[in-house]
Design a protein that fits this description.
- By secondary structure, the chain is α/β, with parallel strands linked by helices.
- The protein has one domain (4-144): Rossmann fold.
- It has helices spanning 14-29, 42-46, 56-74, 88-98, 114-119, 122-129; strands at 4-8, 32-39, 79-85, 103-108, 134-138.
- A five-stranded parallel sheet has the order 3-2-1-4-5, sandwiched between helices.
- Helix 1 links the parallel strand 1 and strand 2 (32-39).
- It is globular and about 40 Å long.
Length: 152
């Protein structure tokens, strides 16, 4: 059914929720996974153009992705890690095509109304941009202080 699943991670409490779902799906389908995190801060968006050193945030994000991928590999899954920079929805959609993924599985925050206007909704934007099917799993409510909001 699904051969390769792209899993956007945001380095927050929501990641455990989507990884739990994807582990089960990948087990059933024999799928490989591609974990992606899109750093979207000013330094991340301009690191190449301005020949900047990687920020501490990018270094932490890369280590987080590699650790998540290593845990999946240790459990017998085939997994690759991608760190991208820029607009999250655009980068996720492009990575799905480039990596030959046939499913994007992502956690959502469940914002509504005014919160969507303030925080945006990466999941909704990915859904509209991508030709790859998108599985959206609503993450559990989490205290605002523990969740790094990236709009997903």
């Amino acid at each position: 059914m699904y051969q390769r699943i792209l899993v956007p991670l945001e380095h927050s409490a929501y990641d455990a929720c989507i990884l739990e779902h994807v582990r089960q799906l990948a087990s059933l389908c024999g799928s490989s996974m591609v974990l992606i995190h899109v750093a979207d801060g000013w330094a991340a968006r301009n690191v190449k153009q301005l020949a900047l050193r990687e920020s501490e945030e990018i270094v932490r994000d890369r280590a987080y992705l590699e650790d998540a991928c290593a845990q999946l590999r240790a459990d017998g899954f085939s997994c690759d890690a991608l760190l991208a920079a820029g607009d999250p929805a655009a980068e996720i959609s492009a990575a799905a095509e480039r990596e030959n993924c046939d499913l994007i599985a992502m956690a959502t925050h469940g914002h509504r109304g005014l919160q969507d206007l303030i925080y945006g909704t990466t999941a909704n934007s990915v859904r509209h941009r991508s030709m790859v099917p998108v599985l959206m799993v609503r993450g559990p409510a989490a205290p605002a202080a523990t969740v790094k909001n990236t709009g997903v």
